[in-house]
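Here is one chain, start to finish.
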Amino acid sequence: RPESDAGATDHTATCTRRSIRRAAPPAPAPPRRSAPAPMTTATATAAPLTGMDKYEEVRDIGSGNFGVARLMRHRENDGLVAVKLIERGHRIDENVYREIVNHRSLRHPNIIQFIEVILTPTHLAIVMEYAAGGELFDRIVDRGRFSEDEARYFFQQLICGVSYCHHM
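Its structure:
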């Protein structure tokens, strides 16, 4: 780390997109505005989510060991958010609690922004900023490889975000 940066806690000052010397890859296309996906048996069991009235479901965007992630639209401002839904019947363990506590304190342009936690009668909902570009892993699998400039662009963002977390 450069000596002038030693002890710095504001990593946004040294890790910005302006510090990329070559042209960045084109931004992903904005998400299509379409009608919400029809409810399936899997999604109907968790809907409607009482307490989530200010959001409307657009579609499922993923699933994991603890639950599902859904793309939702804020009814008042039309903004898109990602919501991680964890069934309350499952043991909400220390890892989930730690994720919430740690994520809510992070403020960095290369880290998905935590918005709120909503406790419904059936679920714990973690509401976060929606990243329309999708997952980096999927992009790598689809493309096979990146050019040096593209790899530098993504790697710098990743390293800046991780560095910020390590200095919290």
